[in-house]
Design a protein that fits this description.
Layout lengths: L3 E3 L5 H5 L4 E5 L5 E4 L1 H7 L3 H4 L4 H4 L7 H10 L3 E8 L7 E12 L5 E9 H48 L6 H22 L8 E3 L1 H15 L3 E7 L7 E3 L1 H19 L2 E16 L2 E13 L27 H10 L4 E7 L2 E9 L4
Helix pairs in contact: 6-7, 6-10, 8-9, 9-10
C-alpha cells in the first residue's frame, strides 16, 4: 500500500468532528493524537493517552502491537474486519480497524493512522431507535386504553354514589364503598400509566446533588445488608432539567436495583461525560451518562426486550410501571434509558444531552 502524505496534524480539526475514532501514532508507536470519538470509544482521556506508548495510552491495543510494528516497518497498511479489543476486566469491543502508514510534515519518521469504527455503534443506534419506537407505541396504547377505561369507571363510580345516597342506611352500603374505593384505585393506576401531565420545568441543576438526594431515599428504604456506592465524575457541568421529574426517573430505576439486590448487595451510582454521542437519530456533542448498577441475579433474557413496556414485571407484587414512567420522563428531556444485564451485574444507563449555556 502506498504511503499517504498527511500534512501536519492540522487536519486534526477535521478529524475532531468525525464519528469514527482516529488514532495517530509516531514511529515509536506513541500516541500523538486521539479525537473525541476515540475518547468515547475507548473510555479514555486524550490527555492521558497523548505522548504515551500505545500499550499504555490505549491498553486494549497492546496485543495488536506486533502487527502494527510490522505495518510501520514495511510501510504497508491493512484493514482488519471485526478486530477484537479488550483490556483486563473490560467488555470486549468488536471494531473494523483501518491502518494507514503516513509521513507527517515536521516529524523525523513515518507514522500510522488508525481509523476505528465500532460495529456495536450501529447496533446501538438501531437499538435506541427501537427503544424510541417502543416508547411511542406504548404511549399511544396507554392513551387509548386510558380513554376507554376512564369513561366507564366514571360511570360505575357515579352509579355507586347514587346507590349510596338512595339507600343511606342499607346493609349493602359497605359494598358500594368497596366499588368506589376500587374504582378510585383503578383511576390512580391509569393516571400513573399516563405519567405527569405537564411539560418539564427546566432549570439549571447539579446532577450529583440530584443523585445524592436519590441515594439518601434509597438508603432509607434499603435493608441493612445493601450498600449504595458512588463513582462520580466531578467535571460534569450543570444540566438543564426538571428536578422533580429527574428525581422520579432516577428513583424508579434505583428502586428496581434495590429490589433486585434483596436483603444484601451493592448498588453503584456512576456518572460519566460522553462526547459525540448519538441518541436515537440525533447526534449530541456532549451527553451525561448516569449508570445505576446492581449485583443482583440479572434480568431473564426473555424479559430483557420487554422491560420498558407497561405492566411487564418479573416480580409478583410489581406494577410494571416504574421503568416505562422513567423512560417517559427521560425521553421528555431528550434522552433515553438503556439496559444491559447478566447475572451479578445489571446496568441501567440514563443518557441526558447536555446543553451548554
Amino acid at each position: 500500500m502506498k504511503t499517504t502524505s498527511l500534512k501536519s496534524v492540522q487536519p486534526a480539526l477535521v478529524m475532531e468532528g468525525l464519528t469514527t475514532a482516529i488514532i495517530v501514532l509516531d514511529q515509536e508507536l506513541r500516541v500523538t493524537f486521539l479525537n473525541s470519538a476515540g475518547e468515547s470509544v475507548f473510555a479514555i482521556s486524550r490527555h492521558h493517552a497523548t505522548g504515551q506508548p500505545l500499550a499504555l495510552g490505549i491498553p486494549c491495543f497492546s496485543e495488536h502491537e506486533p502487527r502494527l510494528r510490522t505495518a510501520l516497518e514495511t510501510d504497508t497498511g491493512f484493514i482488519d474486519r471485526e478486530m477484537r479489543l479488550q483490556r483486563n476486566g473490560d467488555q470486549t469491543r468488536v471494531v473494523d480497524c483501518t491502518v494507514t502508514p503516513f509521513q507527517s510534515t515536521g516529524t523525523p519518521g513515518p507514522g500510522l493512522l488508525l481509523e476505528v469504527l465500532p460495529l456495536d455503534r450501529h447496533l446501538r443506534i438501531s437499538r435506541e431507535e427501537s427503544l424510541l419506537v417502543q416508547h411511542q407505541t406504548s404511549r399511544e396504547l396507554i392513551r387509548g386504553l386510558a380513554h376507554e377505561i376512564k369513561n366507564p369507571l366514571g360511570g360505575i363510580r357515579g352509579a355507586a354514589q347514587l346507590l349510596e345516597r338512595a339507600f343511606p342506611d342499607s346493609e349493602h352500603r359497605e359494598y358500594t364503598r368497596v366499588i368506589i374505593r376500587e374504582v378510585d384505585r383503578l383511576q390512580n393506576l391509569v393516571n400513573r400509566m399516563l405519567g405527569p401531565n405537564r411539560l418539564p420545568q427546566m432549570k439549571w441543576l447539579n446532577v450529583h446533588e440530584v443523585l445524592e438526594h436519590v441515594r439518601k431515599l434509597v438508603e432509607a428504604e434499603a435493608p441493612g445488608g445493601v450498600r449504595v456506592a458512588r463513582d462520580y465524575d466531578p467535571s460534569i457541568p450543570e444540566l438543564s432539567a426538571d428536578r422533580e421529574q429527574l428525581v422520579q426517573a432516577l428513583l424508579n430505576v434505583a428502586r428496581n436495583a434495590l429490589q433486585a439486590c434483596g436483603s444484601s448487595g451493592v448498588i453503584l451510582l456512576r456518572t460519566r461525560m460522553r462526547r459525540q454521542q448519538t441518541l436515537g437519530t440525533t447526534r449530541h456533542k456532549l451527553v451525561i451518562q448516569i449508570d445505576i448498577e446492581d449485583n443482583g441475579p440479572g434480568i431473564p433474557p426473555d424479559m430483557a426486550e420487554k422491560i420498558f413496556y407497561p405492566m411487564v414485571t418479573t416480580r409478583a407484587d410489581g406494577s410494571g410501571l416504574g421503568l416505562p414512567i422513567a423512560q417517559y420522563l427521560v425521553h421528555g428531556h431528550g434522552g433515553l434509558i438503556e439496559c444491559r444485564s447478566q447475572p451479578g451485574s445489571t446496568v441501567f444507563s440514563i443518557y441526558l444531552p447536555l446543553t451548554t449555556t
